[in-house]
Design brief:
alpha+beta; single chain; 5-stranded mixed β-sheet; 30% helix
Length: 145
């Protein structure tokens, strides 16, 4: 399996960013966000000027993206995990074949420091995350203003 990795050091075009965002928007299903929110996350991951950056990993099958991960660095080393895995999705036709696990393993190899993610309790991917060693330490609470 061949991975493409994008970092803030790469010259990534808006077309490339949009391709990843389009894929995530389509394949995150009911667990996804609005397209513009996904684009903001991708821009954050690839920005090393004003923010902390991050990286994107994806695979292709037949010329199309088959799976993708977006990780943002938190800049909070030592007290909050250094990385947050914001998005991961696998094309429906490749689910259950180990692609999600392979993407996670590649993410582990690339991330410097610990990783956190948010997952809804009813998301079936939760079981993969638990098998890979993620634990649930906190209940997330938000105040949206």
């Amino acid at each position: 399996m061949e991975f493409t990795v994008l970092t803030p050091n790469d010259q990534v075009t808006e077309t490339q960013k949009k391709e990843v965002a389009d894929f995530l928007f389509e394949h995150l299903d009911q667990f996804g966000d609005e397209h513009e929110a996904i684009m903001k996350c991708i821009r954050f991951a690839l920005d090393d000027k004003e923010k902390f950056g991050g990286f994107i990993v994806y695979t292709r099958e037949g010329g199309h993206i088959s799976g993708a991960v977006v990780v943002n660095k938190t800049g909070m080393e030592g007290y909050i995990p250094e990385n947050i895995l914001v998005y991961i999705a696998v094309d429906k036709q490749f689910r259950g074949k180990g692609l999600g696990k392979a993407l996670m393993q590649k993410t582990f190899d690339l991330a410097e420091g610990s990783i956190k993610l948010h997952v809804e309790p009813e998301n079936p991917a939760r079981f993969l995350y638990e098998k890979l060693g993620f634990t649930s330490k906190y209940l997330e609470m938000r105040l949206n203003r």
